[in-house]
Amino acid sequence: MKPISLTRFLIEEQRSRRQITPDLRLLIEVVARACKHISLAISKGELGGVLGNAEAYNVQGEAQKKLDVLSNEILLEANEWGGHLAALASEEMEAPHLIPHRFPKGNYLLVFDPLDGSSNIDVNISVGTIFSVLRCPEGVTEPTAEHFLQPGVEQVAAGYTVYGPSTLLVLTTGSGVHQFTLDREIGSFVLTQRNLRIPEDTSEFAINMSNQRHWEAPMQRYVQELLDGKTGPRGRDFNMRWVASMVADVHRIMTRGGVFYYPVDAKTREKGGRLRLLYEASPMAFLVEQAGGAATDGRQRLLERKPEALHQRVPVFLGSKNEVERVTALHREHDAAAS
Ligand SMILES: O=P(O)(O)OC[C@H]1O[C@](O)(COP(=O)(O)O)[C@@H](O)[C@@H]1O
Ligand SMILES: [Mg+2]
Ligand SMILES: [Mg+2]
Asked: What is the pTM of this model?
């Protein structure tokens, strides 16, 4: 069968479903093109001089890697003159970036984590890019941070790339989740999986266990039950994985099921959690729900949370539906008993 390129797939979606406007299609193509560029830079590794620290810090006080800065610049540059956006916001920039007056403007807002899993760059483990597309509110020509503060249900598209043994783009525009693989010989993303589905049950969980002693009581109880395995209340064994690149952990879940948890703990309570709502939790929650999974902050559906700040952090529980519902129910029961 003839391979279906991302462009052809999007044109077909645009024709069959009116929600994809030509502008949205072209915007996704620009993002995909920028990701190809990032993939190329990453694959050069030490030879390309892209590893190591940038000797700079982002607004969240995190040390930036050279590739964090480079990926941000690539996405910014590609999208700035694309003509489909009113503004962009990124993990690596304190405030939104407005499209300069000399370029044509569009009606969308793009928010992204240009390089997810930065701590894995220098050790040659999979990293990725996460992005989310929102509508710019009508009549707004100079969007501010406030215009980005839309709950995840308002997203019109979301996706991530994984720069791993192969480069993948996983995308939703609200009708299922589809996977594209970068064919380096022809230079395009090619459709390799339609309608990814996350099984409702799983025996695999992803969590950073080193934070265990800092977790809240319901989380302690839940994970202990998983660790007790066959001889515990769950009556079966669970396996554990933690890549420390959200894209890689989520992609494993997209492929064979599982759950990914980053609960709030005593260390992150003041900040609200570890992962960022707008460009990590929200797009991943959209993708996971579209693939039949569930995504909560431990108490509430993630997609319904109204962001309060551009770089807001939240707890994240996502993946196989029955497991996410169970851990969420335990948190709710705990809250009810405490009040
Ligand atoms: O190092 P920890 O605490 O295990 O956190 C790992 C998590 O942090 C992140 O790396 C954050 O992403 P960035 O690299 O974009 O800051 C996630 O991808 C990952 O799930
Ligand atoms: Mg990240
Ligand atoms: Mg990042």
From this structure: 0.97
